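Components:
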Amino acid sequence: MADRITMEVARYRPEADDAATFERYEVPCGPEWVVLDGLNYVKDRLDGTLSYRWSCRMGICGSCGMTVNGEPRLTCATFLSDYAPGPVRVEPLGNFPVVRDLVVEISDFLEKLGKVKPWLVRRDERPLSEGEYRQTPDELEEYKQFSMCINCMLCYAACPIYGLDPTFIGPAAIALAQRYNLDSRDQGADERLEVLSEHEGIWGCTFVGECTTVCPKHVDPAGAIQRYKLTAALASLKSLVLPRGAGKEEAARNA
Amino acid sequence: MPDRALYTPHHPRWLRHRVSTWWWLGRWSYFAFILRELSSIFIAWFVVFLLLLVRAIGAGDMAYRQFLDWSGRPLVLVVNVVTLLFVLLHAVTWFNLAPKAMVVHVGSKRLPGALIAIANYGAWVVVTGGIAWLLLGGTNG
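Structure:
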């Protein structure tokens, strides 16, 4: 195996450039070197002006998502040796505006995330003296898969619907809404239904399925969305045949 | 939460990429998605064809024979073969989606998705077999 590999890194300097360009850097390619190591090598030894996000370096923080040879990947979990003999092309995540080099603007995602209330909503808080809200292992299993989301936004980069229609609330926000809807301690499913059942919510999804394919934590956002579509459809049906509000409450319980 | 983050005005030169018209050719899953969307047109054609058949049967023996002659034309045959392929794609897509959308519990345990898919495909085979028997076997008796 070659001990060095060429990285083609997208550069965009907003103060000078009108479009992205690529710069080539030669970096070491050891068996344990990931794409992020290559970028850190460039930053430390070759070109200190390169901008990119990273933090934990172990697939937990979700900061280092970028496009590697056309695929949305966590660069801390993508080995350079898998792309030997190279070159490896590194670009910012797709479907987001680029702030500089490999840094994308993510406030649209954060705004949408807040709308689905990704926290435990309680209508009736128990006093502390009654102790914690307990769950059985089966109740934990109901939402555990969706709780693995690290907000890396690879699913947004892979979703053509989000690229074509940025008002779509997107895969991760819906999966995280389901994470709380399915939590036995939560009572906010009916509030989330208002947001998720809009056209920009679950109905924007046409089940391309790439969000699930690229998810590094195996969250299966596409599955979460299809499941919620069934819930929302049943809620509308029940709201037609049941007394006012009953369908929504039923759906909230069955989310 | 504010409509826009406060630092937005300080980044006036974000680089935005326009989505190419041909984005759906970039990845097999995108192309498959477009084919699935396209399948709805063929599903609509299949419904129209079925309604025409029912109308011809209702209009008497002559109209039914004319319909069969028209259905046997090469162009109609080609369209219907393509339609069959798209209908199968459409059906398989929905059967594969079923285990993702449906969560079935037996007691406190969740049934594996494969079982739900098998049950759906099984029901499909049984119903198709029943209709085939009714149309082909049943009429011979």
